[in-house]
Structure formats: structure tokens, C-alpha cells
Amino acid sequence: MSIVKVVFFSGSGNTKALAEAVHKGAAKSAESELMEVTGEMIENGRFKNEGFLEKLDKADAIIFGSPTYMGMVSGQMKCFFDGTSQRWFQGAWNSKFAAGFTTSLGLSGDKQSTLSYMATFAFQHGMIWIGCDTPNELFQGKSMEEATNRLSSNTGVMSQVNFGDEYKPTPGDLKTGELLGERVAKYANNK
Ligand SMILES: Cc1cc2nc3c(=O)[nH]c(=O)nc-3n(C[C@H](O)[C@H](O)[C@H](O)COP(=O)(O)O)c2cc1C
Q1: What is the mean pLDDT of residues 132-158?
Q2: Which residue lies with its CA nearest to atom 2 of ligand 1?
Q3: Counting atoms of ligand 1 from 1, which one is nearest the CA of 106?
Q4: Which H or E element spans position 36?
């Protein structure tokens, strides 16, 4: 059974809800773990949690999640990504599978920029990026709430969430996340 890690930051819970869905999908066939990046892991602007990174060294696949902040990953996730530079020197994460997901307020909100950055990060490490192949079920007549991949994103999973505690990713967005987790686990198990 392969090892999948779902690494994410979430300020107000939307990305965490999506991370849980991704983890649920991955856990169907792999040993999956949710790993939350927190502000406490960052000291003087540097990600300082070697134990966190060592766990990722053992993973077959890592799925990254972040809210879109100002058209990019959150600062906390960027600190985490920067904290992996020693692994880059060593080529330690070469050929691990990678994938990504993001949430934002705007229908676009520049989420593509966030996912594109995550993919660039993965390519720098020599990781193998797995996109989202889930069809947009709006085209099959499903509602905005229930449709998978309603934002037609293939680089990774996008969820748009309205502002306010009463809003969370739609059931369709969560299903899309779950399917990404399943897909990554399938590839990791067959490598
Ligand atoms: C500092 C900051 C910057 C944000 N920038 C964007 C943005 O560029 N585009 C967008 O659509 N939403 C933006 N948002 C809204 C968040 O992306 C959105 O609320 C997201 O779902 C929050 O995820 P979380 O609950 O996991 O923290 C921003 C929110 C914050 C706090």
C-alpha cells in the first residue's frame, strides 16, 4: 500500500474541508495522512519543522492544498515550499507523485495561478504532476451545488466558496477533491 500525504494550510476552514475530502479519497486505497501547515511552524519567515519534512520524504505522493491569497498560495504554504529547498538540492523528492487543490472567494479569483505555482514547484523537484480528470457535470445538467468540477479545472481541484461561516465547499467540489485523492492513490499504488 502506497503512502499519500495531503499537505495544506487553511485560515478559515474552507481548504481544510477540501483537504479532508481529498484525504478520504486517497485513504480508499492508500495509507493517507492529513498534514496541516500552521503559522507556528514558521520562525522569522522560515519554515522550521524538520520532522514534518522527514515524514514527506517517505511518501510516494504528496497532494498540496492552499487557499488562494492575492492570486497565489498563502504565505504559510510558500514558506513550507521554500523550506523544501534542501530536498531540491538532494533530488530527494524526484519521481514522487504530486497534485494540488485550492479554494478562493472569486469564481476565478486567480486560482489558476495558485495551481500553476504548485505544479511548477513539483516540476522543480522532478515530481510527477497528476491533474484533475473529473468531468464538469454542469454539462450533464447537474446543479451548481452537486456538479463535479463545475469550474472546469484540469491542473488541479478548484473550489469557490462564498464569504461567511455558513459557506463551505459545495458537495460537488468536495466530490471532485475526493476523486483527485482516489486518482493520486491509484497511480502511487501502481508505480
Ligand atoms: C489575505 C487573503 C487574500 C485573499 N486573496 C484572494 C484572491 O486573490 N482571490 C480570491 O478569489 N479570494 C481571495 N481570498 C479569499 C480566500 O481565498 C477564500 O476565502 C478561501 O476559501 C479561504 O480559505 P481557507 O478557509 O482555507 O482559509 C483571500 C483571502 C485572504 C484572507
Answers
A1: 98
A2: 69
A3: 11
A4: strand 31-36
Q: Give the separation between CA 31 and CA 9, rounded to whole angstroms.
A: 20
pLDDT digits (tens, 9 = 90+) for 29-49: 999 999 999 999 999 999 999
Q: Which three cell numbers stand for residue 28?
A: 480508499
What's the whole-number mean pLDDT along residues 67-81?
Answer: 98
Q: How far apart are alpha carbons 191 and 186 in whole angstroms?
A: 9
What does pLDDT average to over the chain?
98
Measured in Å, residue 60 CA sits from the centre of ligand 1 at: 29
Per the structure block, which three cell numbers stand in for 53?
A: 519534512
Q: Is the pLDDT of residue 20 over 90?
A: yes
Ligand 1, atom 18: nearest CA belongs to which residue? 104
Angle (nearest 5°) at CA 102 between 3 and 187: 30
Mean per-residue pLDDT for 117-137? 98
Query: Ligand 1 — pocket residues by CB below 6 A?
Result: 10-16, 67-71, 103-106, 109-110, 161
Backbone angles phi, psi at 144, to 5 degrees: -55, -35
Name the residue with the closest Cα to ligand 1, atom 31: 69
What are the chain's domains?
3-189 (3.40.50.360)
- Distance (Å) from CA 101 to ligand 1 centroid: 13
Q: 127 is written with which cell numbers? A: 515530481
Q: Is the Cβ–Cβ distance between 112 and 24 less than 8 Å?
A: no
- 149's grid cell: 468540477
